[in-house]
Amino acid sequence: MQIVIGGAGKIGEDLCLELAEEGHDIILIEEKEELIDKIIERSDISGIVGSVVDYDIQVEAGVPNCDLFISVTGNDEMNLIAAILADRLGAGYTVARVGNPQYGTHMGLMRRALGVSNITNPRLETAREIVKNLSSPSSVSVESFAHGRVNMHEVKIIQESGLEGMQLTDFRNRFTSLIVCAVQRDEQVIIPDGSFVFKSGDIVLITGLTKDLEQFYIDIGISQKKISNVLIIGGGEITNYLCRILERNAPKMKITVVEKDPKRAWNLAAVYSDVNVLSGDGTDHQVLDEINFTFYDAIVALTGIDEENIMIGLLAAQNEISKIIIKVNRTEMLPIVRHNGLQTVITPKAIVSDSLVKFVRAHENAMGSKVEALHRIFNNEVEVLEFNVKQDSKVLNIPLKDLPLKNEILIVFIIRGNQIIFPTGNDSIQCEDHVVLVSKEKQFDDIDDILEGQKAKTKPLDKATYPDHIAEDNPISVSEVPNK
Amino acid sequence: MNIRIVRFFLSRLFLVEAGLMLLPIIIALLYKEPFSNILSFLIAIGIIAVVSILLNVKKPDIKTLHTKEGMITVALTWIGWICFGALPFVISGEIPFYVDAVFEMTSGFTTTGASILREVESLSHSILFWRSFSHLIGGMGVLVFALAIFPTGASETVHLMRAEVPGPKFGKLVARLKQTAIILYVIYFIMTFITIILLILGGMNVFDAACHSFGIAGTGGFSTRNASIGFYNSPYIEWVTGIMMMLFGMNFNLFYMIVLGQTISIWRDEELRVYLGVIFSAITAIVISNSLNGIYDNLSDNIRHTFFSVSSVITTTGFVTVDFAQWSLTAIMIFALLMMIGGMAGSTGGGIKVARFTIANKSLFNEFRLMQNPRRVVVTKFNGKPLTEEQVTRIRNYVLAYIFCAITICLLVSSDTPDMQTAVSATLNTFNNIGVGFATAGSAAPFTDYSVFSKIVLTFSMIAGRLEIYPIILLFSPSTYLNKS
User: Fold this and answer.
1) Are A210 and A145 within 8 A, CB to CB?
2) pLDDT digits (tens, 9 = 90+) for A330-382
3) Rounded to an integer, what distance in angstroms lies between the CA atom of residue A260 and that of residue A277?
């Protein structure tokens, strides 16, 4: 796919790296030459120095012939104008990053009126992600499928759970309707087979029906108390969206926001009457003590500074707050914070690039069995994909045990109409099924890619330049696909 | 201060009054009154014309009007209109003493309805008409009226209108100020006309119906009968009057929204809800109090008289059917509260205004919340929209100014009043432009026996109440006339 990306900010950079790794041809437009140079050093893209709204620059970048144009500069209006211009020049699809809440309320109208295929709002996406996590108090992160009926949770196994030393086969006998998709142990990701033995400290990716998951939490002694008091530190745009969503979806939840800047605090208080807005420095221990922060069920750290958020997270963990969500912008920080595993880490740019990568994959394969949902888990080591299987797929009507699957792939469940099937080896995939699978190999954009011998798009060169040091450092622990 | 521009506006505004004086002349001709009545109006018109020409000798070279000049112009226009408007009373000899005539005229233009006359039925039709007609013009504002008929489109005039339209916030209905003024007056006149028809249907003669409708529309309260509405002894007229008063106590922008077909959205108006809520709770409380005290034999009389009095008092109209000063002290205290709250912003009513009352209360409530948690950020909202700290402060200060003025007026009239109740009643009566009080002498007790000094104080009290205090304070503050901007 020919992709032109405008703006080399955090999101732009991330997109360049990811999409280049997926094998697309990327041309980056950016005003600052040094930013382009920095990205070119790390991945195989080309760059043009100039403004993304400049007609000549867009033509030079090949926008008229490109399949996808993505404008992700820091300026909403520029992104919109660039996307409109690209659309008129003949770009296949156009995507604009728009953060201003004033534009955000009528996305559908904006898209239609402006002729932009997709408008992405990183802060809103981030807020949605946080809401999803707040609704499941005891897991580290949550993905939901089939309109929320099936959830995929990251859970940390603690000593008291009674799971320590248990074999996966025994686990399956005990929790028949749950599936362990992947396990992260000491910076290493395993797709477990029957002989896998749990250790405390493992973070497991587990899935099942919502009610079965709830029972599981009760059985292993993790309290599933609903979160009723949330403390949000930092009152920026994400908080604004977060309050808006929570006010609508969880009206009973009591929200307290601590914001340093009086003007911002005032603006929040002016919009949300039921939100308790406090003016003060949320990173100040004194202030936190004053508001009795240990009383809250959940703390969400959304200040503009990563280090502050991490500190708040550590402090909250020390005070045994059950749910901690912190926002970290820089991915370089992630291995450090993920290590203690108690908290949910939200990375806005990753959320956006996930959704855009999904968009690219879905549009690249508009005719085939395309990607419906994409979630990346365990620091991007595992992808959870949802495919809509079409009739020309090669996987149809073959019992799963006979499917020549690639290594490190697990078919987790199949959604067939209203039915959710947790398949055994005898089940087979049928036309119009939605298949959710977990894979350590990435860049699948069609269900057929999971079969042995299908195209491998990944160029080794890209892999080497991608800063996924963990993946490079740790030899992949090979395990069988459990369902086979 | 740019005196010339003030003079320029004054001269033109006075001429409007001269024009309006032609109406009572027509009435005098219709009722075949003696020529002296017609002459008294003609002389007044002549005096106005001369003054107006003198004021306009030097044309202003700078045609800018700022807030300060706007306020002064408004204050002087009102005082001028009152002084000239009182002339026919004196010249015709029906109210011989000029201070009395000025009090009566002030009461008319400020839509107070308090009178120095013990009885009005002996006055000639033209004088009665002029007295009641002043309610109609004063209700919506003499400048708004002038603006609606003047061919000017000067943007400066917004300062004039802002100073005159009651309420904390002045919102134009449409982009053009003149258009806004015309819309307001058209709605106003149509509603007045409906009231006239309804009253005629209730058996009033056309002249009485018109005069009473002017009183209802302007929330004034001058009647052509000594016993006010009580004279007719007709439940129909009382209900019609009561309901129409309540409507004229509402913000006129709401009626404009109804005209535009947005009837549902007016129920979202917070001020309207508070207004109706206050009326409803006051009626309930007073009806219960009356029942307990056995004032009325049957409930329907009780409700009717209570509704009428509450509607009359909260809209600051001041028509009476019964002497509620004879009811229980609880009822009187509730009436005193209603007097202070007054009508809605943008209505023809007086008082603090429901909007200010609501916002001041909310701000107070927020203060309590702030005490519980000093770090808390509290925002005062009105109609779902946040108010800036500046706006809230302005409203709190207005309430403060209101209280200081009320206390000062009480103090100034204290030498003339027999007891506390009468002094407070006289103050609230005039300062809120009501026209009825709860004096020991009765709710509609006239101001005949007050000293000249007290009458002048109460005259200014009425003007200050109508123009919402600041223009009058500005008029009397020396710094206004020092030549700095």
Assistant:
1) no
2) 877 676 666 555 678 888 888 888 888 877 877 766 556 677 777 777 767 78
3) 11
Helix (H) or strand (E) holding A435: strand A434-439
- The two three-digit tokens of residue B207, written as one number: 């002249």
Range of the domain at B445: 269-480
Question: Tell me, what's the pLDDT at B216?
Answer: 93
Window A:296-315, CB contacts with B under 8 Å: none
Contacts of A254 in chain B (CB under 8 A): none
Judge whether B202 lies within some domain.
no
CA A127/CA B330 separation, integer angstroms: 54
As given in the structure block, the two tokens for residue B437 are 């009080």
Map out the domains of chain A with their CATH numbers: 2-120 (3.40.50.720), 127-132+226-346 (3.40.50.720), 351-473 (3.30.70.1450)
Residue partners of B62: CB distance under 8 A and separation at least 6: B2, B4, B5
pLDDT more than 90, % of chain A = 14
Q: Give the dihedral sign, CA A138/A140/A141/A146.
A: negative
- Summarised one tens digit per residue, pLDDT across range A33-55 is 899 888 888 888 888 999 999 99
Q: Do A287 and B375 touch (CB under 8 A)?
A: yes
Using a CB-CB cut-off of 8 Å, the residues of chain A touching B386 are 266, 269-271
What total number of domains does chain B contain?
1
Phi, psi of B134 (to 5 degrees): -60, -30
Residue B349 belongs to some domain of the structure: yes
Query: What pairs with residue A230 in β-bridges?
Result: A255, A298
Q: Which of A266, A268, A281, A287 to mutate to test the interface with B (most CBs of B within 10 A)?
A: A266
High-pLDDT (> 90) share of chain B, %? 47
Dump pLDDT digits (tens) for B304-363.
Answer: 999 999 999 999 998 989 888 889 999 999 999 999 999 888 888 888 999 999 999 999
Is residue B90 pLDDT above 50, yes or no? yes
What mean pLDDT is reported for chain B? 87
Residues A215 and A353 sit within 8 Å (Cβ to Cβ): no
Cα–Cα distance measured from residue B91 to residue A175, given in angstroms and rounded to the nearest whole number:
104
The answer to whether residue B91 sits within a structural domain is: no
What length is written for chain B?
A: 485
A262 touches B at CB < 8 Å: yes
**ipTM, 2 decimals?**
0.70
Q: How confident is the model at residue A316 (pLDDT cuts 50, 70, 90)?
A: confident
Cα–Cα nearest to A119, from A111, A129, A130, A127: A111
Q: Do B377 and A268 make contact, defined as CB atoms within 8 angstroms?
A: yes
Q: Which two tokens mark A42?
A: 């790390």
Q: Is residue B330 part of a domain?
A: yes
Could you tell me which chain B residue has the CA closest to the CA of A288?
B375
Structure tokens at B149: 């008929």
- Residues 6 or more apart whose Cβ sits within 8 Å of residue B54: none
